[in-house]
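Long-time lurker, finally posting.

We've been working with inorganic diphosphatase (Shewanella psychrophila) and I want a structural starting point before designing mutants. I don't trust myself to interpret raw outputs, so I'm hoping someone here can both generate the structure tokens and explain anything notable. Sequence follows.
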Amino acid sequence: MSVYVVGHKIPDSDSICGAIALANLKNAIGEPAIPARLGELSPETAFILEKFGFEAPEFKTSYAGEEVFIVDHSELTQAPDDIAEATIVGIVDHHKLGDLTTSTPLECWIRPVGCSNTIIKMMYDFHGVTIPKNIAGIMMCAILSDTVIFKSPTCTTADIKCVEALAEIAGIEDFKELGMDMFKVKSAVEGTPVRDLVMRDFKDFNMNGHMVGIGQLEVIDLSVFDDIKADLETDIAALKAEGGRHSMLLLLTDIMKEGSELLIVSDDAALTERAYGKATENGRVWLDGVLSRKKQIVPQLQEALA
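Top reply, 14 upvotes:
Generated this for you. Predicted structure of inorganic diphosphatase:
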């Protein structure tokens, strides 16, 4: 029986590339595994897979009766809907410990690094398995994406060393140039439906009984949103109502200016002031130096909602 390796709902590059890389490792050590996904590829992820010659993993939403290895999260809200009917055999993650639970022992690789693929590189090293050139390429790109080409405060020395090693294996001479090409793909928002943009990198969190949705769009120039910002605000308000959420946040992140404009609709008008020390003006606030949802948005928000 093969184990399915799958990331979170609305998968990002780390989630997809991590599933492919980890499934390859498991197969190499004699543990049959199949990479899978819970949603459509983002434009960035599609760019990465095409560059290194990969098809998208199998689209699979039901895992009842299956063995599952979770990648890039440990949150019930981000897992398959029927995860309670599956057997979780392992977790690889770089976020806070979530609320997934198991009835049997499992393999856990959880590290405070910038990307799950950094941990998967450590797993290859631990098992003494050579990383194929194309696998090294997608792993490297996932780390560059999650660490915002090393600009994110989540980036660690381990992430940088792994990218350098993976670039050498993949034969990529200028990995930072490739990283910028990835973010140019992310920045191409013209013609994309507003709902698709809001949901491009979106996660739901249960914060002390409050359901909070947080999306993020990382671009190289925030001016790409000038003509559609009001539409984005209308859509996050609609999503809040549709999902019965306490709050909806959308981070518009400028990787060159190294900061984010936060758009928010919330039942708590003073939420950003308590969480980040800055009040919103018409549902917007600029957060200088904020690039990471994981480290600079979620923990402070969870504390403010305690």
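Before you design anything, note these points.
The first strand starts at residue 3 and ends at 6.
The radius of gyration is 19 Å.
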